[in-house]
Amino acid sequence: MPSSAEDAPHPDPDGIVIQIAGVETVRPLRHLVLRPGRPVDTVHTLRDDEPSTWHLAAFADADVVGVVTLFADASPHFPGRRAERFRWMAVHPGWRGRGIGRLLMRRAADLLHDQGVEVLWAQGRDSALGFYEDIGFTTYGDGFIDPDTGIGHHIVAIDVEDLRSAGRTSETVES
Ligand SMILES: CC(C)(COP(=O)(O)OP(=O)(O)OC[C@H]1O[C@@H](n2cnc3c(N)ncnc32)[C@H](O)[C@@H]1OP(=O)(O)O)[C@@H](O)C(=O)NCCC(=O)NCCS
Q: Looking at the domain that runs over 9-165, which CATH code has it been given?
């Protein structure tokens, strides 16, 4: 887990600040976006309590507008390489399409690089595969239905160095 000292605030030109955050900061947006209408405890997971788990939040002033959670987990498609997995990737509905998801992933890649992590992967919702592929992830294998949500998913994965450079020159965030 990166230390918050390695993640000093540096706002993008339009004022979105992405920082390491506590789990209580990221859970409300997780719930709103990924388990709407379900009990709040559906966004509490055992991995949240592990010391190696960490979270990033995107702030617009004091508002949390994007979140993601990361933890060490071997990648089925990159055996032998040091990997982390992410879950609970969510951008507030009112802030989508402005580059916040890309910023979250890129900041994660920079911090993972600093930790010597080589691969980032996830079980991506099929509705978000276009996002992941747009920022450089590769989709692997057959799709599957998540038993908790009934939503279709595929494995997505990327070399951390490729994610660090994804779209560096074309990024824009409008506010
Ligand atoms: C998926 C999600 C995180 C993307 O966040 P975002 O801030 O809107 O994404 P960005 O603005 O950074 O988009 C980056 C690029 O991906 C594209 N993109 C974003 N969402 C997309 C989608 N669902 N399908 C296809 N392309 C998408 C954007 O058009 C953009 O392309 P561009 O750079 O060529 O303009 C957000 O839509 C979301 O929270 N969705 C609901 C929750 C969800 O599905 N989370 C993922 C769970 S695995």
A: 3.40.630.30
